Amino acid sequence: MIPLNYKKAQSSIEFLILMSFLTLVIIGILTIGYFYSNTINDRMKSSQINNLAKKIISTSEAVFYAGEPSKATISVSIPREVIDIEIIDNALVVTYHLSTGQNKVAFLSNVPIVEDSTAEISSEQGIKNLVINANLTHAVIAQN
Q1: Segment 6-54, tens digit of pLDDT
Q2: CA–CA distance from 112 to each of 30, 51, 63, 89, 139 (Å)?
Q3: Beta strands in 57-137 (DSSP E)
Q4: pLDDT one-digit tens code per residue, 116-142
Q5: Residue 138 lies in domain
Q6: For labelling alongside 105, which of 19, 20, 73, 86 has CA 20 to 30 A away?
């Protein structure tokens, strides 16, 4: 006959094995969820920045093609993750931070664009009003 102490010990060991298995499964699920939440957040940031750049580029093209006295004012929302916005060689270059590190993306324009040196585009978070004027040679983008 098996003593009562051994039966209690066996049930305790079985309980510990079961709980350790469940702990490992829960930790695995949480790790996978954390990974996918970072991926989704990065996609949302990239999508917001793509929309921001497309709005600036398309308005610049429309204003430039309309001719010299043309002017447009647009409101854009700059996400918190944006580090820098600059215009280099007819491209809007946006540098921003993702969970995997820093990312730099250039959005090309079909028309010559320049940034107004006296009213540069700020990379601070928030809603910004941008004024886009047409010249004979290029579209000038300035922050209002």
Answers
A1: 667 788 889 999 999 999 999 999 999 888 888 898 999 999 999 999 9
A2: 49, 20, 11, 8, 6
A3: 71-78, 82-88, 91-98, 101-108, 113-115, 126-134
A4: 888 888 889 999 999 999 999 999 999
A5: 4-143
A6: 73
Which CA distances in Å does 114 have to 1, 16, 30, 42, 56? Answer: 92, 67, 47, 29, 12
Instruction: In whole angstroms, give the CA distance from residue 144 to residue 130.
Output: 6
Q: What is the pLDDT of residues 63-113, one digit of tens each?
A: 999 998 899 999 999 999 999 999 998 999 999 999 889 999 999 999 999
- Rg of the Cα trace of the chain? 28
User: CB neighbours (10 Å) of residue 56?
Assistant: 24
Total of domains in the chain = 1
Name the nearest CA neighbour of 77 among 130, 117, 116: 130
Please list, in sequence order, all residues whose beta carbon lies within 8 angstroms of the beta carbon of residue 26, skipping any fewer than 6 positions away: none
Are 118 and 133 spatial neighbours (Cβ–Cβ below 8 Å)?
no
